[in-house]
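Q: What residues go here?
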């Protein structure tokens, strides 16, 4: 019994500490040109199409609303989205990471599978790597290892362009757990300490509605891996399909699944609606820690 890996009590994010005894909000900050653009107007010094001032203003609100982590991403992984080249992704994300860390003492996570961006973002002050491809890109394992940062490994079946065509599993929970377990082993073999890892079932990434619902109903089974769990269901089609609502009307559904995820052991909830999600997580945690 002595050598069973224990779930860490906190996560060391390059000097910033995340207390894992309470659930945390990870706020999504998309830095694709359509998210933080100037509507095509030219801004001096800006070659990326991303307006830094607007991005920083948004981050300030997210922190005041209760976000512990800001997840910065420059690649859209939505089904059918355009493929972004590594240099373009770096040009979008890096200045934003740098600017956030110059102004705020907040954990910045970089949502990327690109090894060069992992390295550069860590130097610019990022404190967490969030890779939807679980370090499977050429060179990603070594780049992530050498940053010394914690890493979130997410499950995806297939690639974003085609992943929703015909996802198939024997038992979706067993298959996703065994994939994540294998990626943990691969990381450890490559010299990444187990205490640096977080895991994510990857809602919506190569999964039908049924798969996503089962993965939430049985999320507690992921606790046997003894690593922090991150989930991202905010505004996703699993909410839209159940409620038959467009993306801008999925808040209540997203809050419902956030509560369930935390009740079943999730430590970090990745979301778009920070203030609402932070309240809901605080309330859930208060009930779960009653009497303590
Ligand atoms: C995730 O689950 N997801 S990007 C489709 C939508 C809404 C949102 C409208 N990065 C995750 O947010 N990283 C993304 O339908 C992620 N876990 C982790 N760790 C996709 C996204 C989205 C897609």
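A:
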């Amino acid at each position: 019994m002595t050598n069973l890996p224990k779930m860490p009590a906190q996560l060391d994010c390059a000097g910033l500490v995340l207390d894992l005894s309470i659930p945390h909000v990870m706020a999504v900050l998309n830095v694709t040109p359509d998210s933080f653009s100037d509507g095509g107007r030219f801004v001096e010094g800006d070659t990326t199409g991303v307006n830094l001032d607007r991005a920083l203003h948004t981050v300030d609100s997210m922190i005041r609303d209760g976000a512990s982590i800001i997840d910065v991403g420059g690649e859209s992984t939505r089904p059918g989205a355009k493929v972004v080249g590594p240099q373009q992704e770096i040009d979008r994300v890096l200045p934003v990471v740098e600017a956030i860390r110059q102004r705020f003492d907040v954990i910045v996570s970089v949502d990327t599978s690109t090894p060069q961006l992992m390295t550069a973002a860590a130097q610019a002050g990022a404190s967490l790597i969030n890779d939807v491809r679980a370090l499977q890109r050429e060179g990603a394992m070594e780049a992530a290892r050498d940053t010394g940062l914690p890493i979130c490994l997410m499950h995806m079946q297939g690639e974003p362009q085609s992943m929703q065509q015909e996802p198939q599993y024997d038992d979706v929970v067993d298959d996703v757990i065994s994939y994540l377990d294998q990626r943990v082993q691969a990381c450890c073999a490559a010299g990444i300490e187990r205490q640096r890892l977080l895991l994510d079932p990857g809602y919506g990434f190569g999964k039908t509605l049924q798969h996503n619902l089962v993965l939430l109903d049985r999320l507690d089974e992921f606790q046997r891996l003894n690593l922090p769990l991150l989930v991202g269901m905010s505004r996703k089609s699993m909410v839209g399909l159940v409620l038959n609502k467009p993306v801008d009307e999925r808040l209540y559904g997203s809050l419902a699944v956030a509560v369930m995820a935390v009740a079943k052991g999730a430590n970090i909830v990745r979301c778009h609606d920070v203030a609402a999600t932070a309240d809901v997580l605080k309330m859930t945690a208060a009930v779960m820690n009653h009497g303590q």
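A: Context that may help when evaluating the design: The chain has a mean pLDDT of 93. The longest helix spans residues 86-103.
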